[in-house]
Amino acid sequence: MKNNNHVIQELGRSAIMAMNSGDVSEAENKLLRVLEIDPTDFNALNLLAYLCAINGNQLRAIHYLEAAIKIKPLDGTVLINLGKAYQEIGNHQNSIRV
Q1: Chain centroid to CA 37: how far?
Q2: Do residues 64 and 48 lie in contact, with contact meaning Cβ atoms separated by under 8 Å?
Q3: CB 34 within 8 A of CB 41
Q4: 46 Cβ neighbours under 8 A, 6+ residues apart
Q5: For residue 7, with 0-12 CB atoms within 10 Å meaning exposed, 13-18 middle and 19 or more buried, which class applies?
Q6: How far is CA 94 from CA 3, 56, 58, 75, 85, in A?
Q7: Helix 42-54 vs helix 76-88: angle between axes, to the nearest 10 degrees?
Q8: Could you tell me which of 41, 6, 4, 12 has the C-alpha nearest to residue 28?
């Protein structure tokens, strides 16, 4: 498991560097690799949701945010982003629920 943690950290750093350089596709690929290793990695789920949201894919963002909220149910940022994503797709009922 220790080796996996190192791999996850390296992939996470690489994903952030790719995001910062504007290579969204590479960032997404790195984050998806993190989830292959650990499907419950909160940071990867949250960053993937962010990438989806800024690219207009609110349904995918919701998918990742719903998974992240199961891990950290009281995370304010995720709750706010989930509410916004639901609002963006016109699902005001879930937007209010969150």
Answers
A1: 15
A2: yes
A3: yes
A4: 64, 65, 68, 77, 78
A5: middle
A6: 39, 18, 13, 17, 10
A7: 30
A8: 12
Determine the pLDDT at residue 17: 96
Question: DSSP assignment of 24-52, as one string?
Answer: HHHHHHHHHHHHHH-TT-HHHHHHHHHHH
Distance CA 75, CA 80 (A): 9
The pLDDT tens digits of the residues spanning 34-89 come to: 999 999 999 999 999 999 999 999 999 999 999 999 999 999 999 999 999 999 88
Q: Does this model's pTM top 0.70?
A: yes
pLDDT for the residue 76 = 94
